[in-house]
Amino acid sequence: MGITTGAEPRVPFGDLSRSVDEMRDDIDTAMTEVLESGRFILGDQCEAFETEFAACQGYGHAVGVASGTDALELALRALEIGLGDEVITQANTCVPTIAAILRAGATPVLCDVDPESATLDVDSLASVIGPATRAVIPVHLYGQCADMAGIRSIADRHGLAVVEDCAQANGAEFRGRPAGTFGAMGCFSFYPTKNLGGLGDGGAVVTRDRALAERLRWLRQYGQATRDHYVMIGVNSRLDELQAAVLRRRLPRLEGWNKRRAQIASAYEEALDDTPVRPLLALPDRRHAFHLYVVRAPNRKEFRTRLERRGVETAVHYPKPLHAHRPYGELLRAPMSLANAERLAETVVSLPLYPGLTDEEAQTVATAARESALS
Ligand SMILES: *Cc1c(COP(=O)(O)O)cnc(C)c1O
């Protein structure tokens, strides 16, 4: 997604090979275990990962699925939300959030976000609730939790289910409580670039409700309750054994990686102090997982070009609000004011931030960001 220059940037926006090199032996061992077990789908690794992942969220149940998008879709289906139902989410999320709503058969409705933190705007949420609204999906975008207290209180008042999109927020907290534990279900992605990533696709749903967890297990396996006994219309969406085995080895490292992310983020914040380029606000009652480090640059194109000349690759998450993607936008209910999401789409820039970044590289980014913001 970076600007193409022909030359290799000195600091790449992402480099997944580092997260493999860091623990290559562990990964080899995990893979070998699976190869020797002869079980590749729904075996011991997936089950153990589910237990360990739920425990690390301090939560009841985790159900492994094939992706974060599937996690969202199956969460809605488990709640029997589908045709004729509306599901609200925020306009600045990425496409998979609404793709999942549509695949569940429901109609996505967008609301606006707070311009300073890019998190869901609770008043805007309230303004788009209608008679067909069944659920809200707050997206803990870039790694920062939405206002879960405000969202819960509106959702409870209107009888809406809350399904959290935690794809970018593994390890984030709101007032000391982990992302994913505020609503009926929390949906995670283990796409390789996420804070906890696999070596392919993967996802999970966490819930404290045993009955919902059971339905999710049916749904991910064609609706199968026991062999040759089907109780729902389901899909094929399972977390495979190789991914689960790798994720089990990576899970204990997540906390340390998130700390490293936060450390780099604070260096960037300091570097951008008193410049026209403003980091998104990290709110004091939340623990940010810094999946991405996003700033607002009034003149984005020039800011990115200046960074590129200093050897720093950047990206934009996301250059268009959801409703601007025609195939999806056409399916959204009614035009509404999404001014903050639209403005953010024009100004946001993501700086390189991942645990494998060296101190020297982080320093290069910090210096380049400050100089580019001031020149
Ligand atoms: C990555 C992501 C998803 C989708 O996860 P996949 O595993 O790629 O299906 C959904 N929502 C958000 C906010 C994401 O960042």
List keywords for this structure.
7-stranded mixed sheet; alpha/beta; 375 residues; single chain; 14 helices; binds pyridoxal-5'-phosphate; 3-stranded antiparallel sheet
Question: Roughly how many Å is the radius of gyration?
Answer: 21 Å
Strand order, sheet with most strands: 1-9-8-5-4-2-3
Mean pLDDT, as a whole number?
95
Give the cofactors and ligands. Answer: pyridoxal-5'-phosphate
Count of alpha/pi helices: 14
Uncertain segments are: none
> How much strand?
5-15%
The computed structural class is alpha/beta
* Terminal-residue CA separation: 24 Å
Helix content: 25-40%
Counting DSSP E segments of at least 2 residues, the number of strands comes to 15
String of helices and strands: HHHEHEHEHEHEEEEEHEEHHEEEHHHEH
Textual characterization of the structure:
- The structure is a single chain.
- The chain has 375 residues and is α/β, with parallel strands linked by helices.
- 39% of the residues lie in helices and 15% in strands.
- The chain has 14 helices and 15 strands.
- The protein has helices spanning 16-21, 24-37, 44-56, 68-78, 95-103, 122-128, 148-158, 210-219, 241-250, 254-271, 300-309, 326-329, 339-347, 359-374, and strands spanning 61-65, 86-90, 107-111, 133-137, 161-165, 173-174, 177-178, 185-189, 203-207, 224-226, 229-230, 278-279, 286-287, 293-296, 348-351.
- The strands form four sheets. The chain has a seven-stranded mixed β-sheet, with helices on both faces. A three-stranded antiparallel β-sheet has the order 7-6-13, with no helix packed on it. Strands 12-14-15 form a three-stranded antiparallel β-sheet.
- A hairpin with a 2-residue loop joins strand 10 and strand 11 (229-230).
- It binds pyridoxal-5'-phosphate (PLP).
- The site of pyridoxal-5'-phosphate has 15 residues, from helix 4 and helix 5.
- Pyridoxal-5'-phosphate binds at residues 67-69, 93-94, 96-97, 139, 165, 167-168, 189, 191, 201, 203.
